[in-house]
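Usage

Read records sequentially. Each one opens with the input sequence:
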Amino acid sequence: MSMPVKTENLIKLESSWLEHLEEEFSKDYMQSLQQFLLEEKSLYKIYPPSSEIFNAFSLTPFDKTKVVIIGQDPYHGAAQAHGLCFSVPDEVRFPPSLLNIFKELERSIEGFKIPKSGNLSSWAKQGVFLLNTSLTVRENQANSHAGKGWEIFTDKIIEILNVKKNNLVFMLWGTHAKNKGKFIEGNKHLILEAVHPSPLSAYRGFIGCDHFLKANHYLEQHELEVVDWCLN
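and closes with the structure output:
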């Protein structure tokens, strides 16, 4: 089914997500967001490309989701964002936050080596839902699409995941992500919180958090398949 949010083409949402989110696209906030995006696109370059805005949903169906990592908004540099939080396409230089994520993985996960590519699609295909709190951004202007409606949509996503699923792992890094914690029941899911992996804060608690290790231990305890975090 085609989505009402139009940028260049009609966008299709993966069927298991559509089952839970279809009603959102007829609500006033989403209609306003649609109009905002159309206006933005007529004046500026926005990221990620239209076809990749819902990439996280396409690669990680609702039914397959077992880990949720929440970012802030997409990377705002050319060719960086492709619809998965913290991830960049092949051949794109690692942003500092992603490099710090890899440093924590190298420190904590046996066999992990800093990869050649920062593309996290292989995580997404294993059930790691890589969600930003806002799904679009204006070129070279971080947080430029904040407060336009995306946060309402992503709040709803977290609410639905919390209610409809059990034994998820939520990784909440930094204030924007931690704000989503109010929608998550700690007795049903594992909530892992840390500072953001940006260079400004990574060494004040992100490096050394062991979130990737703890996530796999939790999945194992609940007889779920662990995530292969290695990307090489």
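Summary fields computed downstream for this record:
- The mean pLDDT is 93.
- Helices lie at 15-21, 28-43, 55-59, 96-108, 121-125, 150-164, 175-178, 211-221.
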